[in-house]
Write a structure and sequence with these properties.
Helix content is 23%, strand content 28%. It has 421 residues and is an alpha/beta fold. The protein folds into 2 domains: 276 residues, Spore Coat Polysaccharide Biosynthesis Protein SpsA, Chain A (Alpha-Beta Complex); 108 residues, Hexapeptide repeat proteins (UDP N-Acetylglucosamine Acyltransferase, domain 1, 3 Solenoid). Pfam families: Hexapep_GlmU, NTP_transferase.
């Protein structure tokens, strides 16, 4: 590859390494059977599809995905939905489960260790640059812009950062930066977070996105692996050490965000709690949601399950199949049921006289006659019994289901089975 091509199209000589091994325990029972990156989102996708799609749309065709916790659902999704990358075109998607590749008994000990254990695979692709990505956030970003800024700056590492309200910044790793964007300090979940330069109401929070020259990262990771006092984690060890060296750059997400047409809101969500997951899905039912899933210039690629069109049947008083301000995926049958401001994934069945308001129903849910559900998340393949009422009596809901601080009920099949015991 010529030096001119490398300069103008750095993504052609870059690899994305996605860290997708986390459980996401704050999502409670939603991650009992799947890792957080494999959790469903938006009617068709999984959470990890956003990082993967951003890489693909940015021109990056060499991708590694490190998995660990309950990875079967995630691996199956990657095999079904992302097998179109072709080795003969110098493309590839490597699924990298924790497999004791370094020594017996040693799984991935931290985010940095997950990369260290796969350095030989990375070196086989010989990328000049590498992006380390979190696989559990919802956003659209052109990584090419971030790569170019990294190259132009000559920084050791460029850290993707998003502006968050100062009142919420204590939940994140926060960057203190100077006017040029150089990071002077990295503080993990500070009680008194430092504000952004020129914006006293916001702080710069780490997105878990890092850009390195591959040769430099390899050197740093090998030194970290030899350090018995390290926890082998990017956020706890690698990034603070590089910040201390004085050559770490903060890249503001607003510079490379793929905005909804006509909007200036840089959309990024950590859907790591039941409330945040429910809200981000329900937000998609808005008239003009900030996350545009219909933008064909920056599509979210995923496994395209073959399903028939959604179907609405019955047209009688109190038994009319209808949906307002809702997203209804293929294979759904709304049979004499009223659906409002809800998101139904594929193959959901909602039977006569039932009412759904602000419901997020994962694939293959069946809702019995005369059920009345409000402000709920329903896990995959749950069978809601006829006449069940949820979302009207907080005390009763909390005894039967997982009720969040925000008043959202998570319903799983074991919870339903317990009602009959």
């Amino acid at each position: 590859m010529s030096s001119e091509t490398r300069l103008h199209y750095p993504s052609r000589n870059a690899m994305a390494f996605i860290l997708a091994g986390g459980r996401g325990s704050r999502l409670k029972e939603l991650t009992d059977r799947r890792a957080k990156p494999a959790v469903y989102f938006g009617g068709k996708s999984r959470i990890i599809d956003f990082a993967l799609s951003n890489a693909l749309n940015s021109g990056i065709r060499r991708i590694g995905v490190a998995t660990q916790y309950k990875a079967h659902s995630l691996i199956r999704h990657l095999q079904r939905g992302w097998s179109f990358l072709r080795a003969e075109r110098n493309e590839g998607l490597d699924i990298l489960p924790a497999s004791q590749r370094v020594e017996e008994g040693q799984w991935y000990m931290g985010t940095a260790d997950a990369v260290t254990q796969n350095l030989d695979i990375i070196e086989g692709y010989d990328p000049e640059y590498i992006l380390i990505l979190a696989g559990d956030h919802i956003y659209k970003q052109d990584y090419q812009v971030m790569l170019e800024e990294h190259i132009d700056s000559g920084a050791d590492v460029t850290v993707g950062c998003v502006a968050v309200p100062l009142s919420e910044a204590s939940a994140f790793g926060v960057m203190q930066v100077d006017e040029s964007g150089r990071i002077s300090d990295f503080i993990e979940k500070p009680a008194d977070p430092p504000p952004m330069p020129g914006d006293p109401d916001h702080a710069l929070a780490s997105m878990g996105i890092y850009v390195f020259k591959t040769a430099f990262l390899t050197e740093i990771l090998k030194a970290d692996a030899a350090n018995p006092d390290s926890s082998h984690d990017f956020g706890k060890d690698i990034i603070p050490a590089l910040v201390a060296r004085g050559n770490a750059l903060a890249h503001e997400f607003s510079k490379s965000c793929v905005f909804r047409p006509g909007s200036s809101v840089a959309y990024w969500r950590d859907v790591g709690t039941i409330d945040a997951f429910w809200q981000a899905n329900i937000d998609l039912t808005n008239f003009e949601p900030e996350l545009d899933l219909y933008d064909r210039s920056w599509p979210i690629w995923t496994y395209a399950e073959i399903t028939p069109p959604a179907k609405f049947i019955h047209d009688e008083e109190d038994r009319r199949g209808s949906a307002t301000s809702s997203l209804i995926a293929g294979g759904c049958i709304i049979s004499g049921s009223q659906v409002d401001q809800s998101l139904l994934f594929s193959n959901v069945r909602s039977h006569s006289y039932s009412r759904l308001s602000r419901v997020v129903a994962l694939p293959e849910v069946e809702i019995g006659r005369r059920a009345d559900l409000r402000n709920v998340v329903i896990d995959r393949a749950v069978r809601i019994p006829p006449g069940l009422v949820v979302g009207h009596d907080p005390e009763l809901d909390a005894k039967r289901f997982r009720r969040s601080e925000g008043g959202v009920c998570l319903i799983t099949q074991p919870m339903i089975d317990a009602l009959e015991d």
